[in-house]
Amino acid sequence: MDVTIESSWKAELSKEFEQQYFKSLIEFVRNEYASNPDKIFPEFTQIFRAFDACSFNEVKVVILGQDPYPTKGHAHGLCFSVKSNVSPLPRSLNNIYKELQTDVGLLPRESGDLNHWAEQGVLMLNATLTVKEGMPESHANMGWEIFTDAVIQKLNEKKEGIVYLLWGSKAIRKAENVDRLTNNILTAPHPSPLSAYRGFFGCKHFSKTNEYLASQGEAEINW
C-alpha cells in the first residue's frame, strides 16, 4: 500500500507496508480519525513525522517513547517532544530538561519542541504512533508495536554504532531486537514523575551518548 513517508524509510519498509497487520492497522487508524475529529493525536499528516525528520541514513541515536501525548495540542510526531507553543511543558519533558542541565550543563529551554535533535540524527520514535485524547495507550496492541519492532530490526540489520536511549520497561523490551555488540544500549527508568527518581535522574545518558558517538568518529549531538 502507498504510505506517505520519507523516501529512504519507504525503501526500507516497503515490504512491511504490504503486510496484512499493517493494512488492518491503517484501516483502524483512518476510521479513528474519521469518527473522532480533532481527538486523535498527532494530526494525521504527522503520524510518520519521526521518520520524515530523520532519514534512515542519518540515524545515529534512537529514543523510544511509549505513545503520543494524549493532550490536545501537544503531540506532533516526535516522542517526548511537544509543539513550540505548549506551556506548561509535560512533566516527563521537564524531567528530561532537568537531567540535561545536571548532565551537560544545558539550561532548560522554554520550548518543548525537540525537532533540532531529529535534525541531527536522533530518531524520536514512539512504540505506538497514535492515541485518542485523554486515553493513554488507547491505540496500543492494534499493530503499531509490530511495526516499530520492524523499524528497530531494520536498523539493526543495516546499521551499526547506534546509541539506543531506552527509558522505562516498555522501551527497554525493544532492546531484544538490537545487537549489543555493535550498538550502544543505554537504559534507565522512565522520566515521568512516578519513576524519574529511581534512576533516570543521574543516568547521564546525554553525555554518554556523545562520548560514544565521538569514539565512533561521529559528530556529537548538540542537545
Features of the shown structure:
223 residues; single chain; alpha/beta
Radius of gyration: 17 Å
N-to-C SSE string, H for helix and E for strand = HHEHEHHEEHEHEH
Enumerate the strands of the largest sheet in spatial order, edge to edge or round the barrel: 3-2-5-6
Global structural class: alpha/beta
Average per-residue pLDDT, rounded, comes to 96
Low-confidence stretches: none
The end-to-end span amounts to 37 Å
**β-sheet strand percentage:** 5-15%
How much helix is in the residues?
Answer: 25-40%
Q: Please report the number of helical segments.
A: 8
Number of strands: 6
Main sheet, how many strands, which sense, barrel? 4 strands, parallel
